[in-house]
Amino acid sequence: MRFDIITLFPDFFTSPLSSGLLGRALSKEIATVNLVNPRDFTADKHHRVDDEPYGGGVGMLLKPEPIFAAVESVPVLPNREVILLTPQGQTMHQKMFQDLGNYEQIVMVCGHYEGVDDRVLNLVTREVSLGDFVLTCGEIPALTLLNGVIRLLPGTVGKEESLKLESFEAGLLDYPQYTRPAEFRGMQVPEVLLSGNHQAIAQWRKRQQQERTRDRRPDLWKAWLEQQQSEKFEKG
């Protein structure tokens, strides 16, 4: 899978792309990442990529010419998405990462300053946000999306079965987990996990997932209940 990242700060990605899970996936050629700097497509001696907005206002906007040129400089694979990282986009979620993993190519445009010239939207197929807040740059959500998609690609995670048991995969948060020692500073591991009774453990974990989601994420809990009702109705 190919990722092309349009970024004013390619060095931002140096360490993340060379270490940990992403580093291993790239070294195994599960995915490739190409960094493109819009400054390389400017004609003036100062390599200017921003300008004042028409009509006045605070801050600067990214100009359309360098971004268009940067995006058009990368190869076009048959099945691709061009994503603008912007607070106005759809909030990232696990289903989105799963969907994006089906593409051959993802091009990401990292916003800066007060945003981008609105004509850039003619380039993109999807607008994506990390959440309802403002960051200093689009590289942070771009790295999040990159990590979220690549870790789901076959061969990235050692035990792919573990991906099916994670938070959000079933619409619920993960259950509590423990390791040795069984007792630490008076805090005990739940007895059921030491019992060896796999059926009881599975039931306990499922119950914990439901309780955690209900208490910590009422929005997810509501969506999960609605999904359960829908599936029950479809089965008759």
TrEMBL record:
Signal sequence interval, chain numbering: none
Residues that, per the record, bind S-adenosyl-L-methionine: G111, L130, G131, D132, F133, V134, L135
CDD domains listed in its UniProt record: TrmD-like
Domain of life: Bacteria
Stretches that traverse the bilayer: none
Main location: cytoplasm
UniProt-listed NCBIfam families: PRK00026.1 (NF000648), trmD (TIGR00088)
Designated name of the protein: tRNA (guanine-N(1)-)-methyltransferase
Recorded name of the encoding gene: trmD
